[in-house]
Amino acid sequence: MQTEVHVARHDPVGRIDPNVYGQLSEHLGRCIYGGIWVGDDDRVPTEDGIRMDTVELLRDLNTPVLRWPGGCFADDYHWTDGLGPREARPRRRNMWWTQGRDNVPEESNAFGTEEFMHLCEMLGTEPYLAVNVGAGNPDEAVDWAEYCNYDGDTELTRLRADNGSEEPHNATYWGIGNENWGCGGRFSPEEYAEQFRRYANYLRGFDRVMADESLELVACGHITDSWNRRFLEHLAECVSIGQGTVYNLMDHLSVHRYHHAGSDTEFTDDQYYRLLARAQQVGEDVDRAAEALELFAPGTDIGIIVDEWGVWHPEAVFDNGLEQANTVRDALSAASVLDDLNERADVVTMANIAQTVNVLQCLVQTDEDSAWPTPTYQVFDLYKRHMGATALRTVVDSEVRAVKSIGNEFSTDGEHEVPLVTASASERDGRVYVTLSNLHRDDAREVTVTVESDDVKLDDAQALFGGLPADLYSTETNAERFTPERIEPENHGDGTVVVDAPAGSTLGLSLQV
Ligand code: AHR
After folding, report:
1. Could you give the domains of the chain?
2. Ranges for the Alpha-L-arabinofuranosidase C-terminal domain (predicted)?
């Protein structure tokens, strides 16, 4: 069968928010401590305790937004613990991620708000803070916003100045808790709606004191329809929830999606394809959340944030700080998630892969004296040209593979068809950028890409992972193997480009139109 990717320039979907290429950095295992923050350890170059090898890799990705401090960690975190002279900061055990148990040290609070803001500044990235709803209170959340953003003369702004930051940090994104249906308080949707209302009421109130009303508030949603609908319905009963209303409370609704099939490096063919099928559920999660918003907050422009997503293999457990091998298979699944998010540029306002360093489907891995990129990092690097460009409707005509019972926590149903080629495209300043993956594990594909333009020049074409086995994973010594190779597609000049996509590969084509 012919494989075709058609890029419909006459059908723009919307601007791809650069924040779709964001990350989550949690106080969990070796993500913050070890991966980002090493303090006085002189085995790697640092600036203010932050390791520069990690920073340099993340800078190359143009990392747009970082979510912090969790994750589940956030709903048992008190931000004032992480301020002031480090030796005087309280050591605490956080309820999550076994801190304080066995060999996992307690939270030292060495990395707090100022260190996080410094990291964001070094990366040129937007901070996205998750406030403590489960074990905190609205006052604590508003104080944090005042500490970070207020530019007047108060006790908290003086405290900020004492900690080295005269100028406000201007943090725009504020998540009202994390997974509040689970670790973040085990609320019912109706209970969370009431918590959300309280927190958002005060944060919005603070926002009004600020002349620019710049806070964007994120509500915790769920991949199930029932949570989102019950939460939104209950909230709508009490208040106006969307932008443009009298007292709007919500700017974004978030969902999380993790998936796995088989183990990190050992999987059958069936499990290989099942993982890809599961990754493709992220797009469906977004569609479901968008439908719920359409029903309960029609006419608003509340965005959808997938603020945790990625592969979570059975090898990543509490006791190893959720570390797993990072393979080519994982990276291919990330490419297909990013294609799905690009395709939904009209509703998706942010996404954060979990997590930045060392934990789960990380982008960077470290040991004591070096840092290296994972295969998934290379996908983010190849896709970064989509950031801020206009997504174009992209129609893929490819063979599919039937996968049995992809089941998840809310469905165990039968068969799912995984398209063996996924793609997305965007346009900016006379250039169309197309990314596509041949997900077939064993067979190469010739792919015909058509772009609506009768004069197309090929700028540049690159391929990732050609010829690499799907179970190959990154280590300190082999990271070079995952870097892109230049390829030479056949350009017919009339809008048709024919490209050979090796088995299990991801390609990026830049075209002048
Ligand atoms: O990313 C790991 C954990 O997964 C996060 O802390 C939590 O929000 C989710 O369950």
Report:
1. 17-386 (3.20.20.80), 394-512 (2.60.40.1180)
2. 307-505
